[in-house]
Write a structure and sequence with these properties.
With 570 residues, the chain is mainly beta. Helix content is 13%, strand content 38%. Residues 184-280 form the GerMN domain.
Length: 570
């Protein structure tokens, strides 16, 4: 069955199902930490045209500033093109590639005499990241030198840029105000969860860009892990969406939408509403139209949920299992967990603490809930387990294929050719069950990738898609956890060689500090971390068994001591 056929079947099943069922701490030690002060971004830049008789370096500097203002302007790049010759202005493609720099570009001017008719100016900087035409953000492993050459000619007695590379040079402090952090949402094949795909679009046109990219379908790295909603070929009838004063977005679609069912239209409307909502809580009402007028969708269609962690964190202390509740640990005797005779070295649990799984030493993965011990996997140096929303357990030997064990006990290999010649050291399934974060090591060092999980019709994982790289600038990573639906927490090396926690976006981080990975303040020497998606709660455990809970940007009060392991569901 093709993906859209699967979607129609799932929507029909949901409609039938709905028809049938209608109806600051006062205790504990506080650790002192370093506070990182974020710098405010330049907001509302105003582009200024070229001054009369300006020298070549002033022309290039003015062009760079005007171009940076283009994404926020109601007349994008019209002022920037005043610095170009007519031919250069016609051929220049500003969005072909955006390079994000660690500061403003530095200019170098080749000597030119008063009678010269041509000049050369070079702009240089260090790249932190780049952005492609579809809004995909890629972080650089380290700041890399970058230089662009501008050729200028005299036109009517005034210097103008006659030759330049396509693209933009944007300082990181400006980037997050010029571009809108956008999460495109696609449904899982069972329609239970939204899966985000982060993009960055120009502030002035981000809604149109977002709708266009949703209609284009999932990115390659999520292919097979999520599904499209509308019939293939459906696109915007006009290359813009209308935004009304009352917060209504009108989306006019091409004739292919006529083949969509009323359930698909309702789901697509919900997909756009989720995509167009912003971090400030503002949401839009979406009206769908075609050439004949408004398009109505079915009422009562259940829509996917945002991915979130379901259940509390569990901890192992003194050979017993505990729940993390608020700012304390309480014995989890009701879970009927048997840890006798085991040497737990890693802990994992599923939604609502079902199942509970430990790694026994380094060679066995054991399910310990339900009043008995069940060996799920055996092998040398098994990877610490992860449990997905289907309650399947993931692990594997470092140099071999990943393995998934279903609740029934059946085992399946998961193919991922890109893992060949790499050693898996950490893995974590996202709350939506559609993405896997993997830390690997090899001759080139450690790397972190996120891949889509392809499942068969019964929901059994069969393969991983080709991945995207996350946190390329974070080195020595030993663990990755989902800190938010599109953000990973990475344990890596700081500049002094110590262990610390970084936040890395799957597609870049929101915030005024720039979209690249950032170190979390106030935490020193963590041995492991775990986090809850949706609650923004992060726990860290050090080598001495001290458990910390993140309270604010830089405060990590002690929650408990003598703790061996801790894990949120996932």
């Amino acid at each position: 069955m093709n993906p859209r056929g699967t979607l129609v079947a799932a929507l029909t099943a949901l409609v039938l199902l709905l028809s049938a069922c209608a109806s600051i701490p006062s205790t504990g030690k506080v650790r002192e930490g370093r506070v990182d002060v974020e710098q405010g971004a330049d907001v509302g830049q105003v582009a200024v045209g070229p001054a009369s008789d300006a020298e070549p370096d002033a022309i290039v500097r003015g062009f760079l500033l005007a171009a940076q203002a283009g994404p926020t302007s109601s007349t994008p790049f019209s002022v920037a093109k005043e610095y170009l010759t007519q031919t250069a202005g016609t051929s220049w493609r500003p969005y072909a590639r955006v390079v994000v720099l660690d500061g403003s570009p530095q200019l170098t001017v080749e000597p030119v005499d008063a009678e010269a008719s041509t000049a050369t100016v070079r702009a240089s900087g260090r790249i932190l990241a780049s952005l492609d035409e579809r809004g995909v953000y890629a972080e650089a492993p380290a700041p890399m030198p970058h230089e662009v050459t501008f050729e200028l000619t005299r036109t009517g007695g005034q210097w103008r840029i006659s030759s330049l590379d396509d693209g933009l040079m944007v300082p990181s402090q400006v980037f997050t105000s010029a571009y809108h952090y956008t999460r495109l949402y696609f449904p899982t094949p069972d329609l239970q969860s939204w899966v985000p795909d982060v993009r960055w679009f120009p502030q002035q046109t981000w809604r149109t860009n977002a709708v266009r990219e949703v209609l284009a379908g999932p990115p390659e790295w999520l292919g097979g892990a999520v599904t499209s909603v509308l019939p293939e070929g459906t696109s915007l009838a006009i290359d813009a969406v209308a935004v009304g004063a009352a917060g209504t977005v009108e989306v006019t679609l091409t004739e292919q939408v006529a083949d969509a069912t009323s359930q698909e239209l309702a789901l697509f409307r919900a997909q756009l509403q989720a995509t167009l909502s912003d971090s400030g809580g503002h949401s839009y009402r979406v009206d769908l139209l075609d050439a004949t007028g408004p398009l109505a969708g079915s009422e009562g269609v259940s829509v996917p949920r945002a991915p979130r962690t379901l259940g509390p964190a569990l901890a192992v202390r003194d050979g017993r299992l505990w729940r993390v509740e608020g700012r304390s640990l309480t014995a989890a005797e009701d879970l009927d967990v048997d840890l006798s005779g085991l040497d737990p070295t890693a802990l994992a649990t599923g939604p609502q603490t079902d199942p509970v799984v430990v790694r026994d030493g380094t060679a066995r993965i054991v399910r310990v809930s339900g009043g008995r011990q069940t060996v799920l996997l055996e092998g040398p140096d098994l990877v610490a387990p992860s449990v997905d929303r289907y309650r399947a357990v993931w692990s594997g030997v470092p140099g071999g294929a990943l393995q998934v064990v279903l609740p029934s006990g059946s085992r399946y290999p998961v193919t991922a050719p890109w893992l060949e010649d790499r050693t898996v050291t950490s893995l974590r399934v996202s709350p939506d069950g559609a993405r896997l974060a993997v830390v690997t090591s090899g001759t080139s060092g450690t790397s972190v990738q996120v891949a889509g999980i392809v499942r068969d019709a019964q929901g059994v994982p069969t393969s991983l898609t080709d991945p995207v790289t996350v946190g390329a600038s974070v080195h020595g990573v030993t663990q990755a956890v989902w800190q938010d639906e599109a953000v990973l927490g990475l344990l890596g090396d700081d500049d002094d060689g110590g262990r610390t926690l970084f936040l890395s976006g799957v597609g870049g981080l929101a915030g005024v500090g720039g979209a690249h990975s950032r170190e979390v303040a106030g935490l020193t020497g963590p041995a492991s971390v775990t986090a809850s998606v949706g609650l923004a709660t992060t726990l860290a455990l050090d080598d001495d068994g001290v458990l910390y809970q993140r309270q604010s940007a830089a405060l990590w009060p002690v929650l408990a001591e003598h703790v061996d392991l801790v894990a949120y569901p996932g």
